[in-house]
Amino acid sequence: MIILTNTTALAASESSATHGSALSKSIARLSSGRKIISPADDAAGLAMATNMEAQANRLGAAKSNVANGVSFTQTQDGILKKVGKALDRMSELAILAQDPTKGTNDLALYDREFQMLGAFISDAATRTFNQSPLFDGNDIDIAIDSEGNSYTMPGIDLTDSAYTDAIASTIDSASNAQTALTNVLAAITQLSGDRATTGITQSRLTYAAETLAVTKENLTAATSRIMDVDVATESTELAKNNILMQSATAMLAQANQLPQNVLKLIQ
Questions:
Q1: How far apart are CA 120 and CA 25, in angstroms?
Q2: Can you name the residues that pair with 228 across neighbouring β-strands?
Q3: Closest by Cα among 115, 77, 96 to 195
Q4: pLDDT in tens, 113-150
């Protein structure tokens, strides 16, 4: 027996410290909901999770961009639909103006409505979406993924000659009405193509949004598997380490009593 070095107590103390550290870590994990509390827990896992979280955030930003792009094209199409109604009425007026039974005053009234509808189309060409021109004809690049790759939305130009020729026409005479009808029909053809373009763009952006949503969901799930604590498993570890620490503490108390036995030998 020895007095100066109580190896049994040292072993019990070390065991108590080890289980205490594990207990503290279990408490930290359960209280935070995170499996990785510090880089030392899983350096590679933390690096992967950090990268995936950043990518998921970028995907969220790209999804917001795409949603705004869809809203942009929907606004375009809503206005183009009204322009289409105006052109339809203009073509109707151009036909009415070719009625030989109509007098000069009648033609003047038809032309007045025709010009007002043309002014509406001219005004529509100046509309904006959050200060971005809707119909200036310029293509728009929109980021659609986490790496900044973009999709080019084709521009719609309401100042195209097909529209301006129709707007500049008059129906104050039968001959002018015939020319106006030709111009309006050309504008209607152009409008059909422009609305088809907005539909194609909306379809493309909708697919992009769905892809972004699925990708972000999968990345978030993968990050969760790395970072989030399994409560059931960690609760079991907590209970085990709690018991082991209490046992180690009790044994440490017993070990500290061992040198007392030496006194019996020297009495």
A1: 70
A2: 34
A3: 77
A4: 999 999 999 999 999 999 999 999 999 999 988 888 89
